[in-house]
Write a structure and sequence with these properties.
Keywords: Glycolysis, NAD, Oxidoreductase
Radius of gyration: 17 Å
CATH architecture: 2-Layer Sandwich
Family: Belongs to the glyceraldehyde-3-phosphate dehydrogenase family.
Strand order of the largest sheet: 1-3-2
Number of domains: 1
CATH class: Alpha Beta
CATH superfamily: Dihydrodipicolinate Reductase, domain 2
Largest sheet: 3 strands, mixed
Strand content: 15-25%
Organism: Triticum turgidum subsp. durum (Durum wheat)
Structural class: alpha+beta
CATH topology: Dihydrodipicolinate Reductase, domain 2
Number of helices: 2
Domain Glyceraldehyde 3-phosphate dehydrogenase catalytic: 28-87
Number of strands: 3
Pfam families: Gp_dh_C
């Protein structure tokens, strides 16, 4: 995974598959890199807030994944995990972030 301003110099022409990072990673990684390079970051926590996504339920129903996944997305703020922190660890070599995301009907929290 490549994020402009963070690790695009690691790209080599023999790489066949290239993909860009998630919206969360694209927003946080450049800022985190600048702060970390200049001052150092000991630990970080990122929280993202999303509107409903295509995979969320619009009405209350059972979820095989977890009990929160069965809540109606249009009426609840649903805590969830985010893969962005994982990408920070694996791809961008920032071993300082953990993260969560919050889904809501709208982003007015």
């Amino acid at each position: 995974m490549f994020v402009c301003g963070v690790n695009e110099k690691e790209y080599k022409s023999d790489i066949d598959i290239v993909f860009n990072a998630s919206c969360t990673t694209n927003c946080l990684a450049p800022l985190a890199k600048v702060i970390n390079d200049r001052f150092g970051i000991v630990e970080g926590l990122m929280t993202t807030v999303h509107a409903m996504t295509a995979t969320q339920k619009t009405v209350e129903c059972p979820s095989s994944k977890d009990w929160r996944g069965g809540r109606a997305a249009s009426f609840n703020i649903i805590p969830s995990s985010t893969g962005a922190a994982k990408h920070f660890h694996m791809e961008l070599h920032f071993h300082i972030f953990s993260g969560c995301q919050i889904y809501s009907r709208n982003c007015e929290i």
